[in-house]
Give the backbone structure.
Amino acid sequence: MNDKTNLFTWENARAILLWAALPLVAGLLIAAALFPQPKIGVIRLSTQIDPYSARDLLQQLDYVRQHPEIRAVVLVLDSPGGTVADTEAVYLEMLKLRKQTPIVASINLMAASGAYYLSVGTDYIFCKPTSDVGNIGVIGYTPYIPSLVDGIVSTGPYKLFGFERDQYVRQIEAVKQGFASAVKLGRGEALKAGMDEVLSGKLWPGMEAVRLGLADALGAESDAIEKAAQLAGVRNPKVVEIFPLAIVSAPTAYPFYGVSPEGLTLSTPAKAGLYLLYIPPSAPSAEK
Amino acid sequence: MTLKNHLWVGFGLFLLPILFQAAHYTGLPQPRPTPQLPQYANFSIPEAPTPSASLAPAEVNHSGARVLIDINHQNSFQLLDVELFTRALAARGAAVEYYFVSDLDLRPLAERLKYADAFVLFSPYSLFEASEISALRDFVSQGGRLLVFADAYRGMQGYNGEFPDTVFSNLLLAPYGLSFAGNYVYNLAENDGNFRNVKLNSFAENVLTDGLKQVVFYGARSVNVTRGAALIRGDANLRSSLNDQGGELAVAGLDSSGNVAAIGSYTFMTPPFDQAADNARLIQNLAEFALGGERLPTLTNFPFVFTRPVSLVTAGNTQLTTETLTAVAGLQQTLRGINLPLSVAADTGSGDWLILGSFSDSELLNPYFDQFGVKFEEGGETVTIAGLGEISRAGNGVILLLPGLNHNALVLLADAPEDLVALINLAAYGDLSGCVIQENIGLCPVGSGGSFGGEATPTDGAAG
């Protein structure tokens, strides 16, 4: 009886501590070290793609690259696109990151033009049934015809103007070829539509975009997170917003759109140049 | 428990959280494609179409011709845009005038068209008045050339989209079986660097398309041809922006008379687009077409019934008296005002003819009497003109106009020298509004006693 009543002895406690608790704790510690809870990073683009928003995106992609616990990225898009070079800058960084980290796009209201360019740089594209998807193509503002300007001396006929008008149009076509190639490579065999249709510049509702193979599936942001986890081979991930982790300075507004003399923001860019941008038509006047 | 068992328990407890954690957070990654980078360096900028061979200088073979370009209907173009076209007209000796009614020039279109060889219209944005439409219809029916241009870049943007530059043009073109579509055409395959810069390779045979192998239109509207010929067509990939449908759309058409052309673009005339393919040749062809009408003058167009230097000759017993010469000098001044020299000659030669005569048999005049059915008796008091009946010779003058391909002849007939002087003076004033004009015959009261059936009223010309 005494033996039964004295089961808890210091000797037993020491044995349990030595052979059970310590290994368990050590196992927990090593498990936490070996298998930390994976994270799915969420990067959001909710504005046009301009030098500032592109810089923010690049910083977030860089943050993901430097934090291996972020096992996959969901890129949430609601953007009409933007400048060509900024779009390409983000697209190229995304392709680099994708070699190590899966990226899934989740299109909300719109992924038009340059924003769609970014989405074809991901592994999988979700959209909503009525998301605006596509508008694949380039717009550019033709430069001025070169002329001499009194009071300004330049060292070449295009020094002041940068481009020769006719050549500029052809360069736009070359940019389009780059976009078209990105779509073909990004969508691969999933793409059902012919390139004539793809390059028509149309915006398609999400459900049509899926049918044409411009997107993979209809789904919510949570579906995108789930898909990203599957692609990364992780379960029960923690979802983290990358922006507050990666961006130290407060966001700065870039004067992307023009402003009318009356002070109204226009739907066209403030500066001439090349754009992968959707410019919505003006809404009918309420007075009409 | 033995030590060995303790070790197994300890090891198991050590592994348990690790396995749990691994199972909890790790799954099998799904396969995904390797990202592929577009080969940006391999994308080439499309080549520009090379200009066709240099053109021979235009021959100055249309001296005296005049082309009216409309700027009276809020036309959406700059003179600089079409300068290569106007230059091609000028190089052929034609004068280019602009039709614009203002306080400085109140002449209506009908007056301006009297002397024009062609009327050219670019992108109008206001209605043509009924009198203008009527004048243009008469002009075309007389062999005048009407060129109507639209351009896909000239639409006006409004709240509800584009208001195309075709609406008012189409009202003019409709009677000729031509119309512009309010679209732009595009070609995703055969283009010059951009889908809207369409290459066109199909041409109907015409002076407008002479020598063309390929032209490139930069922003063009399609032309519907219900009567006549489609002059320039695209291939099967040329499509309309309105419905994305195609099928060899036309961008230029000609009516069945061959005098009315509708061209769906003129940006191709503007440098540097004129240098693409055969565009420069098309500009020259357009000038040739504008000046190539066979417009025979009519008496209603007086004084613009002459197109060449004028030789004045007298027929029969008509004398160039002092009074006659004074009147002729006035007429010479009038013709000089429209760049036509008038010289007195002993006989008809090259150029146009002004024949002064009376109602008497003459070797020179008899063919005209026969042509117009003019019959009279020597010394009689009346003259009979086919279709007009019998009129009094006293106080009345008769004008006959016989246009021809080599020369136009204007015959002034009066019974008395003073009546002839009055008739010349009427012509010198350039105003036959006091005359009855029927086709190319004019009956003018020119003497104080002159009358048609005794009711005619003396005119200013008669007083002169």
In short: Chain B is about 25% helix and 25% strand. Residues 434 and 461 of chain B are 9 Å apart (CA to CA). Chain B touches chain A through 46 residues (CB under 8 Å). Confidence is low (pLDDT under 50) at residues 449-464 of chain B.
